[in-house]
Design goal:
This protein is of the alpha+beta class and about 450 residues long. The protein is about 35% helix and about 20% strand. It is built from eleven helices and 14 strands.
Length: about 450
């Protein structure tokens, strides 16, 4: 070991007698694009002579630690074995390191500790420039149940975010810088921008899929309408992520969704479902309108010809009876060929009633049974005039009021009770169930919303 310089690899070399009185200038000036891309840089030397100068550039912070005194900047009572100071640029600081400025004295003291200084110091430089326009995106689609179409869709999301490390507020800067170094950088000499971006994107993807799925389902926003809610979702998730970034000493400046979409295959399925549902609605409306027109026309015809719907039904019953074998000659003589479609007055109606009673008696049907059969035909009351209606009537024969539709069994065509799961006439099961998992299906569904099975 020479008298006027040290062989300590962790100490900057100063040659000659004059160099033995020199002090170090500690600064970081990136000289290449690779160095400029560093977020944290640890200064290459760690043992500084007493009185060395620390120079911090405007867009930098420096974290200086050494064990010169028994005090610590982290504790108000001064207890501890090391000191840690944070300096926000631009500034120039003269350091008290405890390591002698005169090289021969340093050599003598360092000889007792294996050639290294007993007053060990380190300086970390932190680049505090704002990092904006940073891209993020989901690596794999998030499976979400579309709340409108009730089918599973594979949601993808992309956007931008920006962060920085606080340096304007001195007290907050010290806290944030320490959290950033302790929890993210650790003991690495250099920490690159790419490493920090990778860390931040991982944190974003840790929370965004869950928050996005809950927001879509909770607010019942389908994927086909979600473009109108990008700003709302951006603010919602920014408020959630801000605290998580703060825990690591980072300040989240902005967060935004640029696109939330699904693969073309999912989009095609959703569009086909909407188109088919619209077609079914139009067809149902057309069928109902056609039936209303036909019923109105029949009602006007009855009104012109002077008979009611009940009389028309009675004529139909007698025609059926006349076509059966064993019907009395009296009933046949009165004959449906007599012209039941012609104008039927009260006298003819009474006569035909008498003939019908005789005919029914001849085939074993007494008057009480006929009355019971006729009574069963009365299924409702007209909401306008309170006239009795027969089963299946679409218009009131007394006042012409349109009668609201009732649900019919798809197998037997009988009227159903509201909320019925089985037809009371034929036993037809009315609820559609998935053959795979047994869950209830919605009308016209092509996929089970519980297990995704194609139907």
């Amino acid at each position: 070991m020479a008298l006027f310089h040290s062989d300590n690899e962790k100490e900057k070399q100063h040659k000659g007698i004059i160099g033995s009185f020199a002090v170090d200038v500690i600064k970081w000036e990136p000289e290449s694009s690779q160095e400029a891309g560093l977020v944290v840089h640890k200064f290459e030397y760690e043992d500084f002579p007493n009185g060395s100068y620390l120079i911090v550039a405007p867009a930098q912070m420096a974290v200086f630690t050494n064990n010169f005194s028994a005090g610590s900047a982290e504790y108000e009572d001064g207890m501890g074995e090391a000191q840690c100071s944070v300096f926000c640029g631009p500034c120039k600081i003269k350091l008290e390191t405890g390591n002698s400025r005169f090289a021969p004295f340093r050599n003598i003291s360092n000889a007792l500790t294996g050639g290294e200084s007993a007053f060990h110091s380190t300086v970390y430089f932190i680049n505090t420039t704002y990092m904006n326009e940073l891209n993020w995106g989901t690596q794999a689609p998030v499976v979400v149940l579309d709340p409108e179409e009730e089918v599973n869709v594979h949601v993808r999301a992309f956007g931008l975010f920006g962060v920085h490390i606080e340096k304007e507020n001195q007290n907050l800067a010290e806290t944030q810088a320490k959290k950033f170094l302790y929890q993210i950088v650790g003991t690495r000499a250099d920490y690159t921008r790419e490493e920090l971006l990778s860390f931040m994107r991982a944190k974003i993807l840790e929370y965004v899929p869950d928050l996005l799925a809950k927001s879509m389902i909770g607010q019942k926003i389908g994927i086909l309408k979600i473009s109108a809610y990008l700003s709302e979702f951006s603010k919602l998730i920014y408020d959630k992520l801000w605290g998580h970034f703060d825990d690591f000493g980072l300040t989240l400046d902005n967060f935004s969704f640029h696109s939330i979409n699904v693969p073309d295959e999912d989009l095609r399925v959703l569009n086909e479902m909407k188109i088919q549902r619209k077609k079914d609605e139009l067809e149902a409306e057309g069928t109902a309108r056609k039936m209303d027109i036909e019923s109105a026309a029949r009602a006007r015809m009855r009104e012109r010809e002077g008979y009611t719907y009940q009389q028309e039904r009675a004529f139909g019953v007698m025609e059926n009876a006349a076509s059966n074998e064993g019907v009395s000659s009296a009933f046949l003589g009165a004959g449906m060929g007599f012209g039941m479609g012609a104008g039927v007055g009260g006298a003819i109606g009474a006569g035909m009633g008498e003939v019908a009673r005789e005919a029914m008696g001849s085939v074993g049907i007494d008057q009480s049974q006929a009355e019971t059969a006729a009574a069963t035909e009365v299924a409702a009351i007209c909401p306008a005039c309170s006239a009795k209606l027969v089963r299946g009537a679409r218009f009131c024969p007394n006042c012409g009021e349109t009668i609201p539709k009732k649900p019919l069994c798809p197998d037997c065509g009988q009227e159903l009770v509201s909320g019925a799961k089985f037809c009371p006439y034929c036993g037809k099961r009315l609820e559609l169930r998935c053959p795979g998992c047994g869950e209830k299906l919605v009308p016209m569904a092509k996929f089970c919303m519980a297990c995704g099975m194609e139907l």
